[in-house]
Amino acid sequence: MIFMNDFFQFVYAKVATLPFGDVLFLFIMGTILFNITLIYGFTGYIEMKLIGHIHSRKGPVYTGPLGILQPIADALKVLQKEVIFPHGFDRFLFTLPLFLLTIPNFLAIIFIPVGSFIVFQSDYSLLIALGLLSMSPIAILLGSWASNSKYSTLGGLRSAGMTMSYEVLLGVAIASVIVTTGSMDIVKIVEYQAAHGLWFAVMQPFAFLLFLVGTIAAVERNPFDLVEAESELVSGWRTEYGGVYFLVTLIAEYIKLFVVLLLFTSLFLGGWMDFAGDVGFFVKVLVLTLLMVYIRATAIRLRLDQILAKVWHKYIPLGILNFIITLGVLEVLG
């Protein structure tokens, strides 16, 4: 079986001897990873079709075979729209979130395995990846405040209150995995699961469920979709973003979803070190994506007070209890 890591090593061996071989290799590697991420952008089409069927609708059917070209048509339509800047806005802070939402998410891929390949392996790759993924609430707060709009401001404040709380939950859930493996290196966490023949979804079921809840909140999807609540806030913090600005924020959302699910697969579902290797890895990411779509189509949006009460009164105490139990079991087992 040929793994992605073997493929990249083969490519590197071929181009390393060429002039500027290292630069050429990095360009090839970045292009491949970028295109993998771009292909994942068609998750929007999957969402439209699946949610349509779940809601007894057809979804896109006219643009291309089975409506598969609908995302491209939507992108072209948005690109033709004028970007209208709100009165009294701050141009620098209004534009800055576009970079803070995309660049850190792309950088996080450097430290997270994509199949069997990882650009940069570090003893602290898990910590670095989570730090980069945590930039989104800051970007949303800046963009919402700079918009000079009450709808945007409310959306930004909701994002800050919700995502920062659930990032604590992610940290608590991951703590049990870290103490079990004794490492914050994502590759070593995957190797630990392979060595024991069990996923952390089985070894740490409470941490798995808590991380799943935190993941849904981190990507701001139902039932945690309070940041962009159409019935209350028009488009939430994005209300004043139009044209290509809106398109970039939408792409950033799917990039973050992809990166978070890559991390989820490595931490709790064994990564690439079990059935079918890299193919199995991407099958797991696809199944998680479908799960996210299904939850979005069926879950009822919660109120902000309900969301915060659940995380601080239930989820985080359960995560701490699970962490204490994990420490006790590890102490007994020696």
Q: What structural keywords apply?
A:
334 residues; globular
Topology:
Elements: H1 4-15, H2 21-40, H3 43-54, H4 70-79, H5 91-108, H6 125-133, H7 136-146, H8 150-181, H9 186-196, H10 200-203, H11 205-218, H12 230-233, H13 243-268, H14 277-298, H15 304-333
Helix pairs in contact: 1-2, 3-14, 5-6, 5-7, 5-13, 7-8, 8-11, 8-15, 9-13, 11-13, 13-14
Description:
This protein is an all-alpha fold and 334 residues long. Helices cover 70% and strands 0% of the residues. Helix 3 packs across helix 14. The chain is globular and about 60 Å long. The protein starts with a helix and ends with a helix. The model has no long low-confidence stretch (mean pLDDT 82).
DSSP, total strands: 0
- The best one-word shape is globular
Q: Helix/strand/pairing class, anyone?
A: mainly alpha
Residue share in helix: over 70%
| SSE topology string | HHHHHHHHHHHHHHH
Task: Please outline the major beta sheet.
Answer: none
The share of residues in extended strands comes to under 5%
Please tell me how large the radius of gyration is: 21 Å
Mean pLDDT: 82
Q: Please tally the helical runs, counting DSSP H or I stretches of 4 or more residues.
A: 15
How far the N terminus sits from the C terminus, by CA atoms, comes to 37 Å
Q: Work out the count of structural domains.
A: 1
Indicate the low-confidence ranges by residue numbers. none
